[in-house]
Each structure stands twice: as structure tokens, then as C-alpha cells.
């Protein structure tokens, strides 16, 4: 309730319209393109067991899309979120003999998907309305699949430059 002068008009009330849904995508990519995209089912959360399942699927995707890469060193960039730092996740990474590239917590400016892939995705699809979750997933997957290889190379090159700035700044780095 709000007091209004006699004969005055009450302020207009805005009604919030909630979006149909939000979709969480976990994207694994390298300098040649996307290896795996995982879309989290509605109502689910990512826990260590779920993340380990994604890592199993990632291993299969690498085996299929990048033959021979698993016999070399695989570096994974992820932060210290609970599913990433959980014991079963660490054991899975040891089993695969994958190395984790150190990533400071709360550093989206050092996460290639955040500063490179998703920012471009938002530019291309911002404000667009989708009819269903499947349409979102199909559109995003096709978009990522059809990106030029140079786009992925540039994302990795930016990562190297950003990490160098971070190390020179004694881990106190924010891209401006």
C-alpha cells in the first residue's frame, strides 16, 4: 500500500514475468573445437558423482574426436567448486592421468568459456525467445559446432595472455 494525494494516480506496478526456464550447460573444448556439451536436467544439481559421470563421457568424446590425445597429457581447467575438488573427482582424474590447470577461485576472467565462448553466445542469442528447452539446447549446440576453429584458438591464446598478467600481478588480476 502507498499513500497517494487526493485525486493523484498511484504508481504503475510492474509485473515480473519469469522465463520458462534456465539451462545450465557444461562445455568442454580445446583449440580445435567442442568436445562435449552437457545440459543439466531441470531440477538436478551438479554434485561430484554427476561431475564424474560427465568426465567419463568426456574421456569417450576425446577418444572419438581426438584419437591419440589420451596417450598425451590432458589438461583440464576447472575451478575449486565442490564437485571439482571432491575426493571421488580427484580419484577419477588420477585414474585418467589428467592434470588440472590451476585456476584461482571466483576468476571468470581466467575461465575461457566465461570470457570467450559464453560472452559471444550471449551477444548472438541475447533477447531471443525460445519455445522449449530442446530448442535452446539444439541452437546452442549447433552454434558451438559451427564456430570457426580460429575462434577456439583465439580463446586459448587469450587464456595464456590472461594467466601471464595474473602471475605478474601476483594473482591479483581482473581483465578490464
- Number of helical segments? 6
Helix percentage: 40-55%
- Strands across the major sheet, in which order? 1-2
The first-to-last residue Cα distance is 44 Å
Sheet-strand content, in percent, reads 5-15%
CATH topology of the domain at 25-105 and 124-147: Nucleotidyltransferase, domain 5
Uncertain segments: none
What is shown here, in short?
With 176 residues, the protein is mainly alpha-helical.
What is this structure's SSE topology?
Layout: E1 25-30, E2 33-39, H1 48-65, E3 75-77, H2 82-85, H3 87-96, E4 99-101, H4 112-125, H5 133-146, H6 149-168
Parallel strand pairs: 3-4
Antiparallel strand pairs: 1-2
Helix pairs in contact: 1-3, 4-6
Give structural attributes.
Nucleotidyltransferase, domain 5, mainly alpha, 176 residues, 4 strands, two-stranded parallel ribbon
Structure, described:
- With 176 residues, the protein is mainly α.
- It has a domain at 25-105 and 124-147: Ribonuclease H-like superfamily/Ribonuclease H (Nucleotidyltransferase, domain 5, 2-Layer Sandwich), CATH 3.30.420.
- 45% of the residues lie in helices and 11% in strands.
- The protein has six helices and four strands; from the N terminus they run E-E-H-E-H-H-E-H-H-H.
- A two-stranded antiparallel ribbon has the order 1-2. The chain has a two-stranded parallel sheet with strand order 3-4.
- Helix 1 (48-65) packs parallel to helix 3 (87-96) and helix 4 packs across helix 6.
- The longest helix is centred in the C-terminal third of the chain and has 20 residues, at 149-168.
- It is elongated and about 80 Å long.
- It starts with 24 loop residues before the first strand and ends in an 8-residue tail after the last helix.
Amino acid at each position: 500500500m502507498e499513500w497517494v494525494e487526493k485525486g493523484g494516480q498511484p504508481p504503475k506496478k510492474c509485473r515480473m514475468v519469469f522465463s520458462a526456464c534456465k539451462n545450465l550447460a557444461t562445455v568442454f573444448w580445446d583449440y580445435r573445437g567442442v568436445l562435449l556439451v552437457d545440459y543439466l536436467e531441470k531440477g538436478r544439481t551438479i554434485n561430484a558423482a554427476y561431475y564424474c559421470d560427465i568426465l567419463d563421457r568426456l574421456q569417450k568424446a576425446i577418444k572419438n574426436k581426438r584419437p591419440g590425445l589420451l596417450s598425451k597429457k590432458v589438461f583440464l581447467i576447472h575451478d575449486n567448486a565442490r564437485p571439482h575438488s571432491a575426493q571421488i573427482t580427484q580419484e577419477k582424474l588420477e585414474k585418467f592421468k589428467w592434470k588440472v590447470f590451476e585456476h584461482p577461485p571466483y576468476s571468470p576472467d581466467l575461465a575461457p568459456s566465461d570470457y570467450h565462448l559464453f560472452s559471444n553466445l550471449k551477444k548472438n542469442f541475447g533477447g531471443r525467445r525460445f519455445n522449449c528447452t530442446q530448442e535452446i539446447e539444439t541452437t546452442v549446440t549447433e552454434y558451438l559446432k559451427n564456430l570457426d576453429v580460429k575462434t577456439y584458438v583465439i580463446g586459448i591464446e587469450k587464456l595464456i595472455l590472461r594467466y601471464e598478467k595474473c602471475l605478474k600481478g601476483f594473482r591479483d588480476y581482473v581483465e578490464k
